[in-house]
Hints:
Blueprint: H1 14-46, H2 51-82, H3 87-94, H4 97-127
Helix pairs in contact: 1-2, 2-3, 2-4
Amino acid sequence: AYCVVNPNWRAQDQKDQLSLLMWPLHKSRYLASGIFVVLSYAVVSHLELDLKVGHCVLLGSLAGVAICRFAERFIVIELAIQNPVGAHSIIDRSTSAPAIGGMLTILSIVIVSTLSIGGNYGVAIAAV
């Protein structure tokens, strides 16, 4: 991701520095997901498939972004603020209840909704 950062801006604390570094990643993730969804709808309409397939792609993309945000929040950001070093602590945080619970909730909601929209094919398309 390309980001222009003001060189005169100074972060007050570690959380400000982290948010400054993470913003280009967030922008590129949202932009890539948006482009992917728009192009997938174009392909679905060009191939004259049912629009439900496009909806499943949209749900899968939204779930991917949401799971990424949950994982980033509970594993990376809080860890960087609390403990700046240590690979062992990353492994410990990645298996904690908040990190896994949020992702499983999103995953189960998307599986049920895509199953009702497009059946097994909808779940497979959302997984892509």
